[in-house]
Amino acid sequence: MSAAAIDPLVLRQAEIRASRIVGATGYTRDDWEDLRQELLLDYVRRQPRFDPARGDQRGFVSGVLRNHAAKLARAGIRAEIGSELPDDSRELCACATTRVEADLHLRIDVQTVLSRLPEHLRTLALQLTEMSPREVCRESGRSRSCIYRWIAELRRAFVAAGITAASLAMRGGAR
């Protein structure tokens, strides 16, 4: 199957996932095309199993690519960690690798949610990483009610994606 026969959404998502893997693991820029191809190949293999009665196409694409990207990322992290350690210390890094994997999954999930938001909510999310809601109001000139309404929209987007305080605690991601 040629790249032209694959949905542009799938191609773009595979490219994004490949870029994130290269940026967060032991893979290099030279590996990007191979990672993209591996993601597309996995999608093509799984696509016949898509059941529209169980969900929409976007969700299926996102899930398939996210899961395979996580597997590829784990392989890259293991290779990176393993290459820096003597053979007898590799087993000691298992829990560190698991933590790195959990952080990588969370970063990918958060980036996916943010990429789907309107610009004003992406900007607000970025501002909230550095400022309190009160400071955002002062900096932006927006009212408190507006900022808190937007914060509620952000929360709904993350809850809809399954990212909640409870899910973070279960992953070990709450800090």
Task: Explain how this protein is built.
This protein has 175 residues and is mainly alpha-helical. Helix content is 71%, strand content 0%. It has helices at 8-24, 32-46, 57-84, 94-115, 119-128, 133-140, 144-160, 165-171. The chain is globular and about 50 Å long. The termini are far apart. The relative contact order is 0.09. The model is unreliable at 81-86 and 88-93 (pLDDT under 50).
**How many separate helices?**
8
Bulk shape: globular
| Helix-strand sequence | HHHHHHHH
Mean pLDDT, to the nearest integer, reads 79
Q: Could you give a short account of the major beta sheet?
A: none
* Backbone CA Rg: 19 Å
Give the class from helix and strand content and strand pairing: mainly alpha
Q: Approximately how much beta-strand content do the residues carry?
A: under 5%
Q: Helix amount, in percent?
A: over 70%
Task: Sum this structure up briefly.
This protein has 175 residues and is an all-alpha fold. It has helices spanning 8-24, 32-46, 57-84, 94-115, 119-128, 133-140, 144-160, 165-171.
